[in-house]
Design brief:
Number of strands: 0
Structural class: mainly alpha
Strand content: under 5%
Helix content: 55-70%
Length: 159
């Protein structure tokens, strides 16, 4: 992005499938002006970034108030989430692509939402019958307390 040979060289070496060929290309370009290959290198770098970043779920509405985030800040946020929420060591976070971190974070959030789903109609809890609600009321208990769901939860966790 800063149009430096060093930056472009780093991207070429980091993404090369054949490092020997990458060194050959770089050696052949080292005596040429940067402008002669800058456009092609920038296009390749942008293509790489496009494939690293996750696809948005849905287009942002035209009336959104969200402020654009600098790429540096986005990567800092991903690193923070990877080390705190996912509890990965920093070396693991650096090895993962932004798309992988994003997908795993989304899966973790979906899992947490499923675990916090209300007892009635939740994905893993049996629905409470009208008879149980009435029995709870007669016993002076919370009518929404689902004993069957509690038994199912205890059985799943061996309690």
């Amino acid at each position: 992005m800063r149009q430096t040979y060093t930056g472009i060289r780093a991207v070429i070496l980091a993404t090369a499938t054949d490092r020997a060929a990458a060194f050959s290309v770089l050696a052949s370009l080292s005596s040429k002006p940067l402008a002669s290959f800058l456009g092609h290198a920038q296009a390749a770098c942008l293509d790489l970034m496009m494939h690293l970043l996750p696809e948005p779920d849905e287009p942002a509405p035209a009336s959104t108030t969200a402020q654009p985030m600098a790429l540096r800040d986005y990567f800092a946020e991903l690193f923070k989430f990877g080390t705190t929420i996912l509890e990965w060591p920093p070396s693991e976070v650096w090895q993962a692509s932004p798309a992988e971190i994003d997908a795993i974070l989304r899966a973790r959030l979906e899992r947490m939402e499923a675990m916090e789903a209300p007892t009635n109609g939740g994905p893993h809890m049996p629905a409470m019958s009208a008879e149980q609600r009435q029995a709870n009321e007669v016993a002076g208990l919370d009518p929404e307390f689902n004993r069957n769901a509690l038994r199912a939860l205890k059985a799943r966790h061996g309690a």
